[in-house]
Amino acid sequence: TSYGLDDLDRAIADGAAEGVVRVLTAPGKDQILGATVIGSHAGELLAEFTLAMRWKLGLNKILGTIHPYPTWSESA
């Protein structure tokens, strides 16, 4: 699953809309196997994926979470 930072309102507002968030899931499941974030504020975005992987929360749990708007965490 990929999400371009050029679709993220906060990244656009900050003038840092170049990059991508990629999440690798198990085939046919939403279990997160890994995540790659390329772009500004990448380190701030990895914590949510690390937490989800540690506690075996699937990608749909993250996608179903309401994030503050407009923030970088909204890209998860």
How would you portray this structure in words?
By secondary structure, the chain is α+β, with helices and mostly antiparallel strands. The chain has a single domain, classed as FAD/NAD-linked reductase, C-terminal dimerisation domain (Enolase-like, domain 1, 2-Layer Sandwich). The protein is built from three helices and three strands. It has helices at residues 9-13, 42-54, 59-63; strands at residues 2-4, 19-25, 32-39. A three-stranded antiparallel sheet has the order 1-2-3, with helices on one face. The longest helix is centred in the middle third of the chain and has 13 residues, at 42-54. It is globular. The mean pLDDT is 94.
> What's the pLDDT, averaged over the residues?
94
Structural class label? alpha+beta
Q: Provide the CATH superfamily.
A: FAD/NAD-linked reductase, C-terminal dimerisation domain
End-to-end distance: 11 Å
A few lines on this structure:
With 76 residues, the chain is of the alpha+beta class. Helix content is 30%, strand content 24%.
Top keywords for this entry?
24% strand, 76 residues, alpha+beta, single chain, Enolase-like, domain 1
Explain the layout of strands and helices:
Elements: E1 2-4, H1 9-13, E2 19-25, E3 32-39, H2 42-54, H3 59-63
Antiparallel strand pairs: 1-2, 2-3
